[in-house]
Design goal:
The chain is α+β, with helices and mostly antiparallel strands. It has a single domain, classed as NADH Oxidase (3-Layer(aba) Sandwich). The chain has 8 helices and 4 strands; from the N terminus they run H-H-E-H-H-E-H-E-H-E-H-H. It has a 4-stranded antiparallel β-sheet, sandwiched between helices. Helix 2 crosses helix 5. The chain is globular. The protein starts with 12 loop residues before the first helix and ends in a 12-residue tail after the last helix.
C-alpha cells in the first residue's frame, strides 16, 4: 500500500513515501537485503564515531528465532508484527567504548542508524515499523544482553501488505491519512516558541 505524505514542500521521495505499516505481505525478505539494511545502518554518523548501536535479528526462515523475538514485544504489537518476515531489536551502549564515560548521545546515534536503515528499506521497496512497545527485560533475558546496553526499540520489516489483513480497528488506523505538526510548532528562532521566519 502506498501512503505518501502530503508535504508542504517537495522533499525526497524516499522520505515522502516512508510510513510505518502494521500490515505486512506474506513475502520473505532476501537475506542479502537484510544485510544491506544493516550495512546502511552501520554507516550512520555517531558521536566520536563510537557506533553505540547493536542489532539482534530474527527472520521467519528460522521460526524458533522469530517466535523468540516476537515474545519480546508487548501483546498488542505481537498481534500484527507476527506477519513481518524480519524482526529486529535495537540496542544502544550506555557508555563510550574508549573512555567508559556515559554516552548521552547513544540513543540519538541509534536513531541516525535507524534513519539510514529506513531510507535503505525504502530504496528496496521495503517498509518498517519501529516499536516502543517491547518487553525490555524479557529481551535482555532471552538474548543475554549486557547490563551496560539499553534495549531501545523493536522493528518489524517487510513488504507493506493490505490493511484488510489486520483486525478492524488496526485496519482503520492503517488507512488513516498521515499527519505532522506544522513547522511553526517545531522550529523556533530568537526565543522558545518564537516561530522561525523563512
Amino acid at each position: 500500500m502506498d501512503k505518501p505524505a502530503n508535504t508542504d514542500l517537495p522533499i525526497h521521495p524516499l522520505i515522502r513515501g516512508r510510513y510505518s505499516p502494521r500490515a505486512f505481505a506474506d513475502k520473505a525478505v532476501a537475506a542479502g537485503d537484510v544485510t544491506l539494511l544493516l550495512e546502511a545502518a552501520r554507516w550512520a554518523a555517531s558521536c566520536f564515531n563510537d557506533q553505540p548501536w547493536r542489532f539482534l535479528v530474527a527472520t521467519r526462515e528460522r521460526p524458533e528465532g522469530h517466535a523468540k523475538m516476537l515474545g519480546c514485544l508487548v501483546e498488542s504489537n505481537q498481534r500484527w508484527a507476527s506477519a513481518a518476515p524480519v524482526l529486529l531489536l535495537c540496542v544502544a551502549a550506555r557508555n563510550f567504548e574508549r573512555s567508559g564515560k556515559a554516552n548521552a548521545h547513544a540513543r540519538h546515534d541509534l536513531g541516525l542508524a535507524m534513519g539510514n536503515l529506513s531510507l535503505q528499506a525504502g530504496a528496496l521497496g521495503l517498509s518498517l515499523h519501529i516499536m516502543a512497545g517491547i518487553d525490555r527485560e524479557a529481551a535482555r533475558a532471552a538474548y543475554g544482553i549486557p547490563e551496560d546496553f539499553d534495549v531501545v526499540t523493536g522493528v518489524a520489516v517487510g513488504y507493506a501488505g493490505a490493511p484488510d489483513s489486520l483486525p478492524a480497528e488496526l485496519a482503520e488506523r492503517e488507512r488513516a491519512p498521515r499527519s505532522r505538526k506544522p513547522l511553526e510548532e517545531l522550529v523556533f528562532a530568537d526565543a522558545w516558541g518564537e516561530p522561525r521566519r523563512a
